[in-house]
Write a structure and sequence with these properties.
Blueprint lengths: L1 E4 L2 E3 L5 E9 L5 E5 L2 E3 L8 E6 L7 E8 L10 E8 L6 E7 L6 E7 L2
Parallel strand pairs: 2-10
Antiparallel strand pairs: 1-2, 3-6, 3-8, 4-5, 4-7, 7-10, 8-9
């Protein structure tokens, strides 16, 4: 896996992608949707961790969205921090943050096959 920009990643065929969502000063109120289907987090894993295999062909992409919820009593500097990695090399990349102040509390991710 390579990071193209904060929200776009180059992935290989069959690569297992891991998306971690770290809740900072807020509860674990996040979800992850991939290509229109909600993905269940890995059971019993903290931080919330989502995994999926790359199944698209060359020149195509998977599209994901991490959404977070911030209760009214959450501190103003609360956020969800996203980390992305793959099992075919690269590193654990820092993705976009979702902040309480965001108009829409979500972050879009793209996973591209070269």
């Amino acid at each position: 896996m390579i990071q193209i920009d904060v929200a776009t990643y180059g992935v290989g065929a069959g690569e297992e992608v891991t998306v971690e969502v770290v809740a900072i000063q807020v509860g674990e109120f996040s979800t992850f949707v991939l290509d229109g289907t909600e993905i269940d987090p890995e059971p019993g894993v903290n931080p919330k961790t989502y995994k999926f295999p790359v199944t698209v062909g060359p020149g195509l992409s998977h599209f994901g969205r991490v959404s977070g919820f911030f209760p009214a009593t959450t501190p103003d500097d609360a956020k969800y921090q996203i980390f992305v990695s793959g099992d075919q090399g690269g590193e654990k990349f820092t993705g976009p943050d979702i902040r309480k102040s965001d108009l829409i509390p979500s972050a879009d991710l793209e996973f591209r096959r070269p």
